[in-house]
Specification:
The chain is α/β, with parallel strands linked by helices. Helix 2 packs across helix 3. It is globular.
């Protein structure tokens, strides 16, 4: 059976972590790099977490080598800070409109018709993505595939990785016509188009519907409270 592979971004596509990621990153960066650590002027939306950290390190006067040597320590500290915010301090993380119902429906369909496969394609590290989605009432193991921010040098590289992993899992070459990347930023759109996949954009983040269309999205919706436009892309 060939599947339609639906790869979901995490932040502001599946869940709204209300800034928890940036707060935890800032606290972790200060621990690792000192109190002068800052994300001023650093772009977040749709980018890979290791690249965000490298930009912040560079902006505070450290060398590229320093960013590399400090990365693993930062990652561990960031995960610890995020867990503290969400688990210990009760920082609220919520599923975005329609997401819980949509994912439940897709999981039922995957079990019944076996014509769809769910995945995560995100700039988050695997462990921080899991913290966020599970705080919003979703489960990591509901998503068969996962491609995370430290597993490629670019977001298009994550799309390539997702297609490779699908092929390894199913012994069937991934068909770009059956791969849908769902996200809220131009980066999500670009990583789909780079490999001939469908770019399905949701305006649940900080980018408007017009901006998402201008970035080249094949489909744009305000949110996923009406899942029909996405479900219509599941091919027989």
């Amino acid at each position: 059976m060939r599947h339609t592979l639906l790869m979901f971004d995490v932040d502001l596509t599946l869940v709204d972590a209300a800034g928890a990621g940036q707060l935890a990153m800032l606290a972790a960066g200060a621990k690792v790099c000192g109190e002068g650590f800052s994300f001023e002027g650093v772009s977040f939306g749709g980018r890979l977490d290791p690249l965000i950290f490298a930009d912040a390190v560079a902006s505070t006067g450290h060398t590229t080598d320093a960013a590399v040597s400090l990365h693993d320590t930062f990652r561990a500290a960031y995960t610890q800070e995020l867990r503290r915010l969400i688990t210990d301090n009760g920082h609220r993380v919520t599923a975005l409109p329609g997401i819980t119902t949509l994912i439940d429906h897709l999981r039922d369909r995957a079990r019944g018709q076996d014509d769809v496969m769910l995945g995560l394609l995100t700039g988050n590290y695997a462990e921080t993505a899991q913290l966020k989605i599970e705080a919003a009432g979703l489960k990591r193991d509901w998503f068969t595939l996962g491609c995370f921010g430290d597993e490629a040098d670019s977001r298009p590289g994550l799309t390539e990785l997702a297609m490779q992993r699908y092929t390894q899992l199913t012994d069937t070459p991934a068909d770009p016509d059956r791969v849908v990347i769902i996200g809220d930023t131009p980066h999500d759109i670009h990583c789909a188009k780079a490999h001939g996949c469908t770019a399905f954009a949701v305006a649940t983040g900080r980018v408007t519907t017009d901006e998402l269309r201008e970035a080249g999205a094949d489909f744009v919706v305000d949110d996923l409270s009406d899942p029909a436009p996405l479900l219509d892309l599941i091919r027989a």
